[in-house]
Design a protein that fits this description.
Layout (H helix, E strand, L loop, with lengths): L1 E2 L3 H8 L5 E2 L3 E6 L4 E2 L2 E2 L7 E5 L8 H17 L8 E6 L14 H16 L4 H4 L10
Parallel strand pairs: 1-6, 6-7
Antiparallel strand pairs: 2-3, 3-7, 4-5
Helix pairs in contact: 2-3
């Protein structure tokens, strides 16, 4: 899995509408065939991931960092199911500070992880979604 690094990469991915949403996150995605100044923006055919966490929705840096770690860990765990595309996970609403008092609480991490798994399952490759069950034929 590759990480989005440049502003140009983020701009290309964010240009389109979100392909999946949950109450707190939106996922934007685009193909890898974009070229800028005769050079490919995404030179490796792999899953590219970027994270956008506005201070508007997560004021404390410790909260943004905890959410960012959850996004990358969830994506790493689901990497075989994710398409070869460039994606940006964007925080689009605040996690209630009244419900989650600590920025690094186990409850917040669980809530974030569950929502991220749901978000990424929506864009998972169809052939990876359902495991193929092999049955033994009695003959």
């Amino acid at each position: 899995m590759q990480r989005l690094r440049s502003r140009q990469q983020f701009q290309v991915v964010m240009a389109g509408a979100p392909v999946a949403k949950t109450p707190h996150f939106a996922l934007h995605s685009t193909g890898l065939a974009h070229v800028r100044d005769a050079r490919p923006l995404f030179p490796v055919a792999d899953t590219w991931l970027g994270v956008l966490l506005p201070k508007r929705w997560a004021r404390r840096a410790v909260t943004r960092n905890a959410i960012r770690r959850q996004i990358y860990e969830t994506a790493r765990a689901m990497a075989p199911m994710l398409p070869k595309a460039a994606m940006v996970v964007r925080l689009r609403s605040e996690f209630s500070r009244k419900q989650f008092l600590s920025a690094t609480s186990v409850e917040l991490k669980r809530a974030v992880r569950a929502e991220l798994e749901q978000l990424m399952e929506r864009v998972a490759r169809p052939e990876s979604k359902a495991p193929v069950l092999e049955t033994a034929h009695a003959g």
